[in-house]
Structures are given as C-alpha cells and as structure tokens.
Design a protein that fits this description.
three-stranded antiparallel β-sheet; 145 residues; elongated; 7 strands; alpha+beta
Amino acid sequence: MKKGSLIPYIIISAFIAFAIFVGSFIIKAVNTPINLESEDYYQKEIMYQSHIDKVKRSRQYEEEFNIELKGQQIQFNVPSDLIGFQSNIHLFRPSDNTMDQTLNLRLDARKMSVDVSALQKGIWMIKIDVTKGEQSYYFEQPVKI
C-alpha cells in the first residue's frame, strides 16, 4: 500500500480553520453592542453651540470650582456667585454608558460632596451643569475612583 502525501489535508484544514475564524469574527462583530455617548447623540451635536457658550461663561469660575476625590466622596468648591442655584451632576463612565448616573442637586454651601462608594473603580468624568437664572455654567473634570 502506498502512503499519500499529507499536504492536501493540511491545505484543506488550513482553509477550514480560516473559514471558521472569519465566521466567528463576523458573528462577534455583529453581536457587539455599539455604545454612543448618549442615545440622542446626533441631536446633542446640533445643540453644541449652546454648550460652547456655557463653557466660555464658566471660565471665570474655573479656579474656584475644583473637583477632587477624597475617600469615597467627590468634593467640589462652589463659587459664591453660584450658591443657591440648581445643578445637574452627571457621573459619566466613558467605557460603559450603562453605568452613567445623573443627580439633581441644589448648591447650598461653599463646599459640596457626593458619595461615590457605589460606583465601580475606574475613570469617571464628572460633569456639573449649573443654571443661574437665564445663564448656564458647565464644569467637568475626570476623576479616578
């Protein structure tokens, strides 16, 4: 009995392995969720000019309004001009938008703090939006928890 060459079997096996790899890659790519920053991303893009105006107004308070992590609390100083006004604090997780949280808070003291003990460790972007009458102010800073 004559022994055949293994080369045709190796070539066929390589094609089959390649086909399985490409097929599994396509299945994984189709089933991977695409997380935008928010669901209404495109609408927010159109409204971005008002955000730019908020950031410009906020520059006068940049040095006073600092955000830092102390223990399990995010602490920030409130400029005296903004005490008594309503704010939205958005705890934004860049790597997973399902962990994002928004808190409504009245700025009623010079030093404010927010408990973050329930948040996962990692990088969080703290976004604070303060409304003072007709004017809005925006502050943001990354914090590693």
